[in-house]
């Protein structure tokens, strides 16, 4: 984890959420799926940090989303991170299937970029693809997701915590449907303490115990998750 100050240079608006483009004074390293915590340096009333997810890899600015509505270009932003457990894409994976269960596909773009950099074929199953979708990524209807389980050698997605039961039922997962050995999901849930207080608000149930998305996630193995 690192602490740094950045300047908010630009805000890009899209239908999938606004992105803050930050100028950092040092090189930023992160694994797709990890997150940052940010505060406006000039706002003493902003007590709780904002959870920010990388929208792409730095280009060279660091794009983070969602950008809070009260942030403006020129603000000084105090950043901490990266935090949490990210995606673990095997270097040998060549057939990558990604899914967005409910309009959060922009959180998968860094993973798409990583997969494309190792010459993998990438398919996104989503209802609404993100505006910054790499052109090499094929988009298919979310309803066809189950058909990818035998094709892909790596499966990953993003879903709200409260929708896990719906996802299990819709895909037939609870009935021993075959999944690839490497299958992960970013569980999107509030993380108000950012891993600093063990408040339990972001608790996610695994087969053996409860885990905290802010520390043990937000990326979890699909093989380990359970429905409460």
Automatic annotation (TrEMBL):
Domain Dihydroorotate dehydrogenase electron transfer subunit iron-sulphur cluster binding: 191-225
Highest taxon above the source species: Bacteria
Pfam family, one: DHODB_Fe-S_bind
InterPro entries in alphabetical order: Dihydroorotate_DH_ele_sf (IPR037117), Dihydroorotate_DH_Fe-S-bd (IPR019480), PyrK_electron_transfer (IPR050353)
Protein name listed in UniProt: Dihydroorotate dehydrogenase electron transfer subunit iron-sulphur cluster binding domain-containing protein
Source organism: Anaerolinea thermophila (strain DSM 14523 / JCM 11388 / NBRC 100420 / UNI-1)
């Amino acid at each position: 984890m690192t602490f740094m100050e950045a300047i908010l240079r630009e805000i890009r608006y899209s239908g999938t959420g606004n992105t803050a483009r930050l100028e950092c004074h040092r090189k930023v390293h992160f694994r797709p799926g990890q997150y940052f915590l940010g505060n406006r340096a000039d706002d003493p009333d902003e007590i709780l940090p904002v959870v920010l997810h990388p929208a792409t890899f730095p280009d060279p600015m660091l794009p983070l989303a969602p950008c809070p509505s009260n942030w403006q270009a020129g603000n000084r932003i105090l950043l901490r991170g990266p935090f949490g457990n990210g995606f673990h894409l095997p270097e040998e994976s060549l057939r990558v299937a990604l899914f967005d269960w409910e309009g959060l596909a922009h959180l998968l773009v860094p993973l798409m970029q990583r997969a494309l950099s190792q010459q993998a074929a990438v398919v996104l199953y989503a209802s609404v693809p993100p505006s910054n979708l790499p052109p090499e990524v094929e988009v298919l209807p979310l309803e066809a997701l189950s058909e990818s389980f035998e094709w892909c050698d790596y499966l990953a997605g993003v879903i709200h915590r409260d929708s896990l039961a719906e996802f299990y039922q819709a895909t037939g997962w609870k009935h021993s449907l075959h999944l690839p050995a490497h299958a992960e999901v970013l569980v999107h849930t509030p993380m108000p303490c950012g891993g600093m207080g063990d408040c339990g608000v972001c608790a996610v149930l695994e087969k053996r115990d409860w885990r905290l998305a802010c520390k043990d996630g937000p990326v979890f193995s699909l093989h380990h998750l359970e429905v409460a």
